[in-house]
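Why do we care about 3D structure at all? Because function follows from shape, and shape follows, mostly, from sequence. That is the central idea of this module. The next example makes it concrete: a single protein chain, its amino acid sequence, and then its structure expressed as tokens.
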Amino acid sequence: MVEKEIKRENNKLDMKRKNMNILCIMFIGLLLSGCAINKKQIDALANCDYTVESLQDIRLAGRDMDSYTGKEGVNLASLPGIAVAMLRQDLPLEARINMKVSNPTTTTTKINSFKYLIEIQGKPLFEGTVNENLHLATGESTVVPLTFKANIFGTAKENGVESVLNELFTRKGEGFLVLKIKPSIKIGNSNIYYPGYITVDRNLAKSIGKLVM
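And the structure:
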């Protein structure tokens, strides 16, 4: 009688262990499945097309960029505002970048917020964040405005004001002004950002030059 009771209890324990093992396997399966879905969503961020649609409201030292140019190009002698800004060690460059985001993939892409970085000659110039809630179906696109205002006095002092202005107005090469972004997806209450920055435009100065020359 005692042996039967012990055997019955052992069977119950074995059943509990089996049930726990099954629950653990199911939990791990769900966890791995969720991780796979999240990784797929994050990878999809890099598969979107990001381009600079246009630049607007470009100002240097508080003045519209096109007010600094003439038929003969940039003339430092005609830029008293720049000279005053250099004396103050405050030479602000500001603009609104209209970035076009397109989804060429076969699935809907969801993007929450963007971190964006503007570099000047390979060095960070401005970092910002814009909150957007994008749902782009296949073939859809939208424009996201990115604004920035940064002091380029250090670059002007290091390279010469005239050189920097010519880079801004007539730049034909790459790498002087660069736009990079880091998009994210929302999981729960947290933004999960794409690992590393995605380069959108390696020659923002060329876009500026088109507007003022």
